[in-house]
Amino acid sequence: MVVQASLEGEAYFPSDDVMEQAFVRDWEALARFADEDLEGFWAREASELEWYQPWERVLDDSQAPFFKWFVGAKVNIVQNALDRHMTTWRKNKLALIWVGEKGDVRTYSYFELYREVCQFANLLRAMGVQKGDRVTIYMPRIPEIVTAMLACARIGAIHSVVYGGFSVDALQGRVDDSHSRVVITADGGWMNGKLVELKKTVDDAIKRCPSVETVIVIQHTGQEVWIEPGRDYWYHELKQLRITNGACTPQEMDSEDPLYILYTSGTTGTPKAILHTHGGYMVGVYSTLKYVFELNDMDRWWCTADPGWVTGHSYLVYGPLLLGATTFMYEGAPTYPYPDRWWSLVEKYGISVFYTAPTAIRGLMRFGESWPKRRDLSSLRLLGSVGEPINPEAWRWYHSVIGGQRCPIMDTWWQTETGCFMITPTPVVPLKPGSASRPFFGQRAEILDEHGNPVPDGEEGYMVLTRPWPAMMRTIYQDDERFIQQYWSKYPGKYMTGDSAKRDTDGYFWVIGRVDDVIKVSGYRLGTAEIESALVSHPAVAEAAAIGLPHDIKGQAIHVYCILRADYTPSQELMEELRQHVGMHLGPIAKPEKITFMDALPKTRSGKIMRRLLKARAQGLADGDISTLEE
Ligand code: WTA
Predict the structure, then answer these.
(1) Which of 31, 84, 375, 405 lies 20 to 30 Å from 54, alpha-carbon distance?
(2) Ligand 1: centre distance to CA 111 (Å)
């Protein structure tokens, strides 16, 4: 790729090689088609997949914002991710290559993965799990997290994956809210050379979750764990039972039936369960991965995300399998035992398309070029970025040191709520470092001011999406009210992303960051409310306010302001104790970077903490509008 100047600012144009290999060379033409015939575009995408029964209507918008896609169709996403490949040569193609942090390796062909999923699904069915039941999955990054998710979906159960880095309170809240009857976990996992005690966390969390009847435990680390008689079962023992044998017919699902819920932090209060469906989600994920990363049968795809987050759901588990691609999955930390662990895996397994987060790039950049330079990274042909804006410096390093100047970087903007990429280039689109470029086929985005008027190009405003898409969230599980209130009420008829952004004169979008109470720490999405409630559960804390401040590697870091109760005095020890407390309750990723003790917090007259003001002051910026500040 070469830098040229026919677009405003720094731009990288696709090389002849990239253009030649691309399967959609005329981006403009496809974009025009999808824009003019939204339903036609998505119907064509959907028809590349298998349906038990075709749809009567592509889109039903009569009850917007409760949009319905592929109305009347019957389908099962797992049938498309696995069974569909059983009648082709892909049956014996590698579906999954897995490497543990300790160096153990496991591989699964499509047939092997299909068998594992059938066994697991048979087991869940035998245990009485039915269509619509919720199952919580709390696991390390091991193959069984994939088979557990697919087994649930196969029988129509709704999976709710909770990130294995979360701790007791976070897990308990999510199990309880979803009323899960079954929890699937592992004895433990490996991260950075350390044992993570997952089963122990489950034991503590479900003490207060009356809905849980059964816990299935995968043996992974071999550490000793408590097995509660009548409640907990080792998976490898259950697998010996005859009930797991034989084929497992997938449940025929309505296109709009729930596939999963995934909890994510929003504007206020507790995390909310974003709900996705079998039909539309399947089509959205399939189509975006196909067009943006153009996976083919020669590729080995590595998405470094954890299945506990939406990126793992869409682009580690479902997307690549829907496309019949070979997915690579690694259990551990990028720097364990040395900072070239990831690059050594790219070299050894011939990874050709690599998708990660800016925070990881920045983290690895700091060890210098010599680590990646010692590895042969010539198998790579395409790179990807997700989770937060990528700063141009990291972009250039990624592009030159990892991608050898030859691999275009697909900076994909999307959210748990959107289910799939929304603003993203494809390999033929000229790239500008730091911009996710333009909306995906069929999508439109706008930048609005406070009153809903479009702002001029180059000015910052609220980013909204204005057309429905198949993989859009359908609601917040059991809370339609909040769904409307949070996403569709500020600008009626438009989906509020919660991000601020600018559009430049070339039509490229530049996302700046969240405008709500979401903090993105190393790409992980956390809510101020969760952090604050973990803090006030400590006896020393009367009140707390959390904000995100810029951080060189993490993107944002959590800073906390606390008012102590009368009998406590500020000290270094107390600060450390509070950090540990948050880590214990919520998870290590939520530990505050810094805690400042205060006598009072700035509040509005109606009693809301003015985090915006704390943020401005911490960065030495102007206060902004403080007319609502309490005296
Ligand atoms: C941010 C992750 C800039 C954004 C898939 C969004 C990004 C939030 C990008 C959603 C990107 C994600 N450029 N910002 N390429 N991708 N974001 O739900 O603020 O964990 O609203 O989904 O991440 O985070 P979530």
Answers:
(1) 31
(2) 34
CB distance 554 to 588 below 8 Å: no
Q: What gap in Å lies between CA 451 and CA 472, rounded to an integer?
A: 25
Nearest CA to ligand 1 atom 15: 413
Residue 1 has pLDDT above 50, yes or no: no
Asked whether 475 lines ligand 1 (CB < 6 A), one says no
H/E stretch holding 354? strand 353-356
CA 586 distance to own-chain centroid: 18
Tell how far the Cα of 277 is from the centroid of ligand 1, in angstroms: 21
Residues 511-567: tens digit of each pLDDT: 999 998 899 999 999 999 999 999 999 999 999 999 999 999 999 999 999 999 999
Expressed in angstroms and rounded, the spacing between residue 386 Cα and the centre of ligand 1 is 6
The string of pLDDT tens digits covering residues 436-492 is: 999 999 999 999 999 999 999 999 999 999 999 999 999 999 999 999 999 999 999
Single pTM value for the model: 0.96
CA of 485 relative to ligand 1 center, distance in Å: 21
CA atoms within 13 A on the CB side of 78: 28
Q: Which amino acid is at 470?
A: P
Distance 201 CA to ligand 1 centre (A): 28
C-alpha 36/C-alpha 41 separation (Å) is 9
**Ligand 1: centre distance to CA 413 (Å):** 6
Q: What percent of the chain has pLDDT over 70?
A: 99
- pLDDT > 80? residue 310: yes
Show Cβ contacts of residue 578 under 8 Å, excluding neighbours closer than 6 positions. 535, 538, 540, 541, 560, 562, 592, 595
Query: What is d(CA 502, CA 447) in angstroms, rounded to the nearest whole number?
Result: 7
Q: Closest Cα to atom 20, ligand 1: which residue?
A: 525
Query: Can the peptide bond before residue 65 be classed as cis, meaning omega within 30 degrees of 0?
Result: yes
Q: Write out the H or E segment, with its range, that includes residue 503.
A: strand 495-503
- Closest residue by CA, ligand 1 atom 22: 415
The answer on pLDDT for 568 being more than 50 is yes
312 CB less than 6 Å from ligand 1?
A: no
Report, as an integer, the average pLDDT of 104-119.
98
Q: How far apart are CA 177 and CA 188, in angstroms?
A: 24
Determine whether the shortest distance from the Cβ of 255 to ligand 1 is under 6 A: no
Cα 246 to averaged position of ligand 1 atoms, centre (Å): 41
- Tokens at 350, concatenated: 């011939």
- The token duo for 346 is 């790219």
Residue type for position 339: P
The separation between the first and the last C-alpha atoms of the chain, rounded to the nearest angstrom, is: 57
Which residue's alpha carbon is nearest to atom 25 within ligand 1? 415
Answer whether 225 contacts ligand 1 (Cβ < 6 A).
no
The minimum-distance atom of ligand 1 relative to the CA of 417 is 18
